[in-house]
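Hi U.,

Before I forget, here's the chain from the pilot set. I'm dumping it here mostly so it's searchable later in email.
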Amino acid sequence: MMKRYIIAVYVENKSGVLTRVTSMFTRRGFNIDTLTVGATERDEYSRITVTLDGDENTCVQLVNQLKKLYVVKRVEVLDSDPIKRELMLLKVKNDAKNRSDIMTAVDVFRANVIDYSTDGMCIEVTGNPSKIDAFIKLMQPFGIIEMCRTGVVALERGASTLFD
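Structure:
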């Protein structure tokens, strides 16, 4: 059965680590939906968050392969309901006849206009991936010029950490 998995990976915070991890995905033929990397609460580690669709066997295989890499310090499949967020910047055509509808959508989605010109506006949207997808669908008739998404970042609920 296909399912969406979110995997958190703590790795050494050194140059070349991301290349080592992503080349493992390539060699093993894993199809990754999103991959985000960033600093953690510990200077010596970076955190990679991976989302993928697959069956349980694929997920287990990926986790086992990640654990074999010496630069990987901890791997966890996040539970079924972690806190998930994604950031998107979306540039849409700005014309007088659609401006009020676009601004209404920005308000409803609690988004922010971060750049405004006579021919386009750039909107920042933060939320779970389904919210981002819904906003894109709503903006398509107005003319999306360009967009960029970060990919999912996620944390388990509660006070526990990956190192507990």
